[in-house]
User: Fold these one by one.
Assistant:
Number 1:
Amino acid sequence: MECPICLEVQDGPQHQCREGHVYCASCDSNLRAPRRCPECRMALGPLNQAIRCRSHEERIAALPAACSHCGLATTRGEVAAHEQDCPQRPRACAAAEAGCAWSGLLADKAAHEATCPFAVCQRMMAPLVAEMRAENSQLRAENERLRSRVAALEAGEAGEEGGRRVRQRVGAAPHDAPPSNAAVRAMDVAAATAALRVHVSDSRVAAAACKRLEELCMEDQNEQVAADAGAIEAIVAALQAHPQEAEVQAEGCAALTNVCFVNDAAGRARKQRAADAGAIEAVVAALQAHPQVAGVQQRGCAALTNVCSGDDAAGRARKQRAVAAGAIEAVLAALQAHPQVAGLQQRGCAALGNVCSGDDAAGPARIQRAADAGAIEAVVAALQAHPQVEGVQQHICAALVNVCSGTDAAGRARSQRAADAGAIEAVVAALQAHPQVAGVQQHGCMALGNVCYGDDAVGLARKQRAADAGAIEAVVAALQALPEVEEVQEMGCWALRMVCFGTDASARARRQRAVTARAPEAATAALQAHPENAAVQEEGQQLRDLLV
């Protein structure tokens, strides 16, 4: 039931082409012109005439689900309504926007608010706030009336100078009043950026403008246009101005993600510009301030991934800056707080793997800090919780590669910790479940090789555990299924070599098992298919030498 575009099972409306291929409505809305079915490439009509697939929606709604708060077994169609009223769902204090950080059960909320100084002040201020809002409504109505008069009078006085004279005579407000959400939705990149910059103190406009920039920057050509207009600094300013507004934080992180998406030279410059503006610290603060809001957590992790990506010196410095801001702990808290949200697990593991990559001097310390914070167990738990979601499996395996990298004692200890958490079996299951997905196979083989590295007693035990789980056959199947993918061939040969290495009887049995699975033939095929790839040649030849 996965959408072929985002590779996730999405709730909500499902669209289909005339041939019956189904994809989620959110992905359909993001298709670029010319709009075509992602499966058969058939031309699609306008989005407002999309064909709904009610039967697919009903099947998704009937899938089993569990409440993330109390664990009650229900269905995907009903779990949202249940979670909204679940007595175990954490509630924030009514004065959260005023600064109270309390969060607890509904049964304890009334007792807390009775003594909370923020809530007490809020109740005392409520009549004054209501009076102020009523006056603001009257002022807005008067302003709209004056605008109408200005428009009518300007029709009779041509030119900007005439318009200014009219506004002076009637006492109308200037044209910099906060725009409506509808007006923001119609803006181009420059206008949306200007609105965000001018009205950054207005949380409604800030959220709407960030959302508009997010949408516009889905088009690659708009990313640099937005940066040139000052969108990066405006978005970061909005995040900093409204730390307690979840909507602003979610939309701001999403906008940052898209503006910093591409990884070419201009894209890397935008990432650095975002970091220089304080984006990393602002995103980490958003994760820390809204731990129970899955949307903020997912988009914040995505923003961290994009802003911190890059394997040059500047990219490694951004990763280190994220760690110093507390990104590792914030991302892990997100993974642990929302284990059933597949998209968050995918984005969170991608962020974790990104921050833990890099061959700079501080790289090993970042990796160890992640392990000490519980990253290995969190990543393996995500791998086990979402076995059928390709994107989750791919990014989690990639994160496992980085967190378990290292050939020193600390690296071997992390590999053993991963094995103890069930990583070997989970990775093999991922390889078996997604045989045609190159990303899963590549990163799964890399993760398997990393975890099985080592020739001490515990290292040899990990190799045998992998063989017992079916790793040899799964990796050979990957080599056979994806002969044209160089990365799969390289990593598959390397993983087999790690699993089959050893001099004892068990190692000889593993090598015989690999021969029986036709690993030598797969290695030979890899050598023949990629004669110009030095890495494939090296790994394939070493595997053949080990087995033959």
Number 2:
Amino acid sequence: MSEVVSYTDDWRWERRQPLVDLGAREFAQGEVTLDDDGHVVTYTVAPGDVEAVIAERLCAYPSLALLNHVRDLSPGQVLWLTPDPDSPWVPYFSPLDAEAGIARIPYQNAMTAAGLAVDAGDIDGVRAIWNDTLAGMFTDPATIEAIQKVVDAGDPDALRQLFS
């Protein structure tokens, strides 16, 4: 099982070993994309796919939806499976440093909107969502600074790891 782990307090995630594709099966018929070394990088969800079976097929842990900032999976969705340990990761449900009583629905709606903007290549839209909504929901200055650097740089792959 290839596990994603964090060795820091700011949730920078790293996959401990490359994923292995054990082959398509019932409820995991999607397409796998490999890097130049033959390691699994993405998985495109097919109709009828089930998250747990996809994870079993790829020997992947933890929750693929959680890693991709969504509650559920849908056909055609591209799952990014190997996080960059040098880039921060933003949780979908609420900031790690969230104070009691944070409005989680507005936070999750903003995360969803940022993810859609990243997927559409709308870097300015992602910046606006972060700067106008999400940044104010975090309290730890180091976390805000780390995320702001990624947002300002505008690298689509790094933004995808943050929000999509």
